[in-house]
Design goal:
By secondary structure, the protein is α/β, with parallel strands linked by helices. Helix content is 40%, strand content 27%. The protein has a domain of 219 residues: Vaccinia Virus protein VP39 (Rossmann fold, 3-Layer(aba) Sandwich). Helix 1 crosses helix 10 and helix 10 runs antiparallel to helix 11.
Length: 318
């Protein structure tokens, strides 16, 4: 069986999954909110930027004609991959590319995006004095369910100018489904323990995850001083077509099964042979184009409460 732990390939494979999943009403509200800023560059900071997929999406989905984008990710490998691939991608979009000290500028006669990338812990980066109240839009994509939101949200929101927007997407919310069912009782237990492992995750001694982040964000965002402008489901739904899974989504599915297996293969409450057999059967279903996968998630658009500037950033004055 080939390895399924190429994380950069996984991130690339899930781009099409995320494109379908992202809540289009929440995105439309974001686009409406930043429209009053079209006369000047939109300052965008992304936490957990990965290989730059969201930066590409900002361009592909035409959020704003002039974007100043900075992406931060703790993984040097992710940032190296992004630096190696984004320039070629920009040229495929028909854009000219101009090198800068921290990245590059891609531009056409109608649009421009300046991209800078940094390999650094996101929660360390946002505590720098120069990052306070410095951004119009903060993006955290598939990120907030990997941190302690009660601690992280106040620090993240502090990077926004009063009235600035937070676009927080693909926040897992406690439901994972694989069909067809193999052994309903065993699989229910497997998923319960898998979700519980998210709740028990610590990184560098800090809580780092919550299997119900999606629903809990609503109250935590308001507690941290943000107004929720829009929210909606952003479920991952991956199904086979007549000719198999689209693009590289079969690899995405293999990586999901690999992750569950790696997390639970040695769990004291499970039989190792049964977990191994489950993973082997699921991988085989993917190869045959039989597996359906669903994960429930939520997207949020918020505004940092503050000065009168918020009335200009939010065109509905809310």
């Amino acid at each position: 069986m080939p390895p399924y732990d190429d994380f950069q390939r996984y991130l690339a494979a899930k781009v099409t999954v995320d494109d379908r999943a992202l809540n289009k009403d929440v995105w439309a509200r974001l686009a409406d909110g930043v429209r009053p800023l079209h006369a000047r560059p939109l300052r965008v900071l992304e936490m957990g930027a990965g290989i730059g997929s969201m930066a590409q999406r900002l361009w592909r989905w035409r959020l704003h004609p002039h974007i100043l984008y900075t992406g931060v990710d703790v993984s040097p490998q992710n940032i190296i991959h992004a630096r190696q691939t984004l320039r070629a991608w920009a040229r495929r979009q028909g854009a000219s590319v101009l090198e800068t000290q921290t990245g590059f500028v891609m531009h056409t006669p109608q649009r421009q995006m300046t991209l800078s990338l940094a390999a650094e812990d996101a929660l360390t980066f946002v505590q720098r004095p120069e990052q306070q109240a410095a951004w119009d839009l903060l993006i955290a994509h598939a990120f907030l369910d990997l941190v302690d939101i009660a601690t992280a949200l106040p620090r993240l929101l502090a990077t926004l100018e009063p009235g600035g927007f937070g676009y927080f997407t693909i926040n897992f919310d406690g439901l994972t489904l694989f069909e067809p069912t193999l052994d309903e009782t065993f699989e229910a237990r497997l998923m319960t323990l898998y979700h519980r492992s998210m709740d028990a995750r610590f990184i560098d001694g800090r809580p780092a995850g919550d299997s119900r982040t999606g629903r809990r964000l609503f109250a935590q965002l308001q507690k941290a001083g943000a107004r929720v402008l829009a929210a909606g489901a952003s479920d991952w739904v991956v199904i086979p077509r007549e000719d198999g899974y689209p693009d590289d989504e079969a690899y995405f599915l293999h990586a999901i099964i690999h992750t569950v297996h790696r997390e639970l293969a040695g769990h004291p409450e499970l039989d190792r042979a049964q977990v191994d057999a489950w993973a082997q059967m699921r991988h085989a279903q993917i190869e045959r184009g039989e597996l359906l996968y669903i994960a429930h998630q939520l997207d949020y658009l918020v505004k940092r409460e503050g000065s009168q500037q918020g009335k200009h950033l939010d065109d509905e004055g809310r």
